[in-house]
Amino acid sequence: MSADDTNGSDTSLAVIILAAGLGTRMKSRTPKELQPILGRPMLDYVLRAADVPAIAQRIVVLSPAKSAIAEQLPDDVQVAWQDEQLGTGHAAACALDQLNDDITHVAVLFGDHPLLERSAINGLVETTTEAGGLITLLTTIVDDPASYGRVKRNAGQIVGVVEAKDDPQQYDGPVEIYSGISCYERRWLEQHLPEIERSPGGEYYLTTLVEMAARDDSMSVPVVAVQADPTVAYGVNDRIDLARAEQILKDRILERLMRGGVTVADPNSTFIDDAVEVGMDTRIEPFTIIRGTTVVGEGSVIGPQSVITDSRIGNECEIVSSHLNGATVGDRVHIGPFAHLRAGARLADDVHVGNYAEIKESQIGRLTRVGHFSYIGDALIGEDVNIGAGTVTCNYDGNAKHRTTIGDRCFIGSDTMLVAPVTVGNDAVTGAGSVVNRDVGPNETVVGVPARVKGPARRHQIGTDGEGTA
User: Fold this and answer.
1) 460 is catalytic
2) How far is CA 388 from the centre of its chain?
3) Which of 105, 334, 340, 372 does the annotation list as catalytic?
């Protein structure tokens, strides 16, 4: 095949991702490729790197013992099964019969290389297309080749890959190694994979193909290489490797956010998942963790010591030393310190939540203030409401949850117990320490245990610090 045959639209590539290894060094009941790294399974990073326009087909090779991975793959990713663990060459061969008819080249990746980036795949594709060789290797330069295969050259041409166990040489300086990522001309690969001889250990290795291709005299340069960043060769085998990979990915994420206009006060103590979005001019204070699919608006301050998971936070908010999980927060909202917003908490604009307050499955209206040491659960609270310190919505009767509804402009005195289901009408007032187990009408004031109507509400008597004087 000449270089012209692989140029332009005539080149159609498939990616085979090898993920059948049992990964016993991870010592986990979870398959290695599903180990989470900053909010995503490890394999997701590889699939994303291989999701480029030049790739027409993606196939993941799995062992039947790792069927859990197949259940989590995107719909457009196919699965090939490797019933026996007989090496990388055998694993690649298991996927060949699933290749589409128009595929001209096949790239082979590994499911435990989460540091792989699209730029490396694009470089591999471009070199393959331009060079027109039989094999394109993704190589890199390192000071210590460790367990990686060494690229063997003769007069500048690649003639093979030497496995670490077969290389007695001691290195004192840069060494070109094979990352394990490669691309093959399809017809040549299908013809020569069956010719790989079994190793003494009983496995078939893809690296054997490099020497076979180098002996092909039908073209001047049968094996070519493209060099990439050393991280592309980083495979994860155990928990130590996992932690190192996570640190590199963490730095990439923070760098991306900072280049986008986000201030990260202390990157060393800040952890942000890959899918998180943060708006311009937001500041992330030290010891903050932002997880999942969280979205943070512009001009907000998060932290210090906040933990935010799967939440949406508006613009110009301040969340101090608090935990949010599945919450939705409007603009100019202040939360904390030490508040806890659980799933279903929905705060409108200009809401204040004090320290040690907890909110779950509740909607809080605009300008409402929730005092410290309060619990708001299964509640619908209107606008401009003052929730005094220590207020509790008693939403659970031992069998079922019940709703509390509070109208606009109400004043709920400190230590009020709202025994759901109960409704408090607009402009109503509850006295400090009241136990409200019946509905309160609009403009009424109730006090006592149980709370009884005292008279009409008189807002001029009510303080604004959540303590109450009624």
Assistant:
1) no
2) 38
3) 372
Are residues 431 and 412 in contact, defined by beta-carbon separation less than 8 angstroms? Answer: no
304 CB burial (10 A radius; 0-12, 13-18, 19+)? middle
Q: State the Cα–Cα distance between residues 277 and 132, nearest whole angstrom.
A: 40
Which residue, 209, 228, 60, 59, is CA-closest to 135? 209
Residue pointed to by tokens 């907000």: 300
Alpha helices in 101-151 (DSSP H): 118-131
Partnered with residue 183 across adjacent β-strands are 107, 136
Tell which residue, 160, 163, 164, 162, has the closest CA to residue 210.
160
Q: What is the mean pLDDT of each run of 10 residues along the chain (470 residues)?
A: 44 93 91 96 96 94 94 95 93 96 96 94 90 92 88 91 84 89 95 92 91 86 91 91 96 97 98 98 98 98 98 98 98 98 98 98 98 97 98 96 97 97 97 97 96 77 42
Distance of CA 363 to the CA centre of its chain: 28
Q: Where do the domains of the chain lie, and which CATH numbers do they carry?
A: 3-233 (3.90.550.10), 239-461 (2.160.10.10)
**Cα–Cα distance list, 359 to 290, 353, 373 (Å):** 19, 9, 11
Cα 140 from chain centroid? 27
Distance CA 35, CA 41 (A): 5
Q: Please, which residues bridge with residue 452 across strands?
A: 447
> In a 3-state reduction of DSSP, which class is residue 49?
helix
Q: For 44, which DSSP code?
A: H
| Alpha carbon distance 250, 242 (integer Å) | 12
CA distance 55 to 369: 53
Q: What distance in Å separates the CA atoms of residue 45 and residue 40, rounded to the nearest whole number?
A: 8
Using only the alpha carbons of the chain, give its radius of gyration: 31
d(CA 17, CA 100): 16
Which two structure tokens, joined as six digits, stand for 407? Answer: 């109208």
- Nearest Cα to 3, choosing from 219, 227, 155, 225? 219
